Amino acid sequence: MGHEVIVVNAHEEPPGSWHAAVFLAGPTPRTPDVESWRPAALRELREQWRGDGRLVVFVPEHRHGVYDDYVGQVEWEERCLHLADEVLFYVPRDLATMPAFTTNVEWGVWHGSGRAVFGAPPEAPKNDYLLHYARKLGVPTATDLPGTVAAALERIGHGDLRVDGEREVPLLIWRTETFQRWYAAQRGAGNSLRGARVHWRFGLHWGLHVQVYVASEDRVKSNEMVIARPDISTVLLYRPAPALEDTLVVLVREFRSPATTSDGFVHELPGGAGPADPLERAVQEVAEETGLRLPAERLRPHGDRQVNATLSAHRAHLFSAEITEGEIALLRAAGPGGVAAESERTYVEIATFGEILRERLVDWGTVGMIAQVLRGAS
């Protein structure tokens, strides 16, 4: 396809596919005698774009300078802002000719989205507050138009081809392993994405409202959220007993804000999320949360599954290890564990499988993981 830049002006329909999309947010001239900054931005984008295919640029100015539909303009901008991979804010504010009041509101909506860049000439007034939040949230900034364009394109890179409903998934979500695995599963079932809207993002966690065409039912399901986080590694440490219900199981107790237990703590298997190989992560989490340092060879893999398939796309990689009486004694004497820098504090608990079931110590997902391992070990 080569390097291609397509301009979509206000009220115009976006194309059906692209590799990247940028929205040019900032003050718009209200009279013909005031020069817009956007033509210069388009020249910079054409000069700097080195992606593999089509870059779409949303320009919230009418191609012929006509503004006659305020509500339609607002709705077009909202739609295209959500379609953009990067919202390029450039604010050459002039209090007399381009006061940028609407830009202030748009910045308030998008500055924490993870897909905004901010530029402004040093002499432009009343930008200190906007710059403060750009710096606070790590938004890339620049003092001229070429630098602002470069900041946006650097994060885009070469882009990624998306078609139809896929266009509504911005690159910062599209490129995550969790999204790609979820979408590969949907496509493998013959389904396709008809629409999407990012509702929130927190680090590597995200929530996406999706519209999915369900091929086997020939319908579009549009009332669900896909929530994703990095995969977790979970480890069952246990000491077998003649009776299954007397098997000792190692749990960790930790305060977790979503808990609805009487003490506000969750009781779960040692484990956690991170970018490491699942087995490496399992070894690390056991050490951090229990103090027990086990070599990787002692951990048996049991595969991975979703934990809550009606809500979250992430998966749990389950491992287990049979431990000794001496290790049980060490664990009973262990003090608090966890990673203080990550506000994590864990306490080792040891209970029999029977106690876990009778006292409802763990959630249903954890019951299933324990049963999966102990059924094979019994």
UniProtKB/TrEMBL annotation:
InterPro entries linked: Nuc_deoxyri_tr2, NUDIX_hydrolase-like_dom_sf
The keyword Glycosyltransferase is annotated on this UniProt entry: no
GO molecular function, one term: hydrolase activity
Highest taxon above the source species: Bacteria
Keywords: Hydrolase
Gene3D superfamilies assigned: 3.40.50.450, Nucleoside Triphosphate Pyrophosphohydrolase
Statement: the UniProt record of this protein carries the keyword Hydrolase: yes
The protein's name in its UniProt record: NUDIX hydrolase
Species assigned in the record: Actinomadura rudentiformis
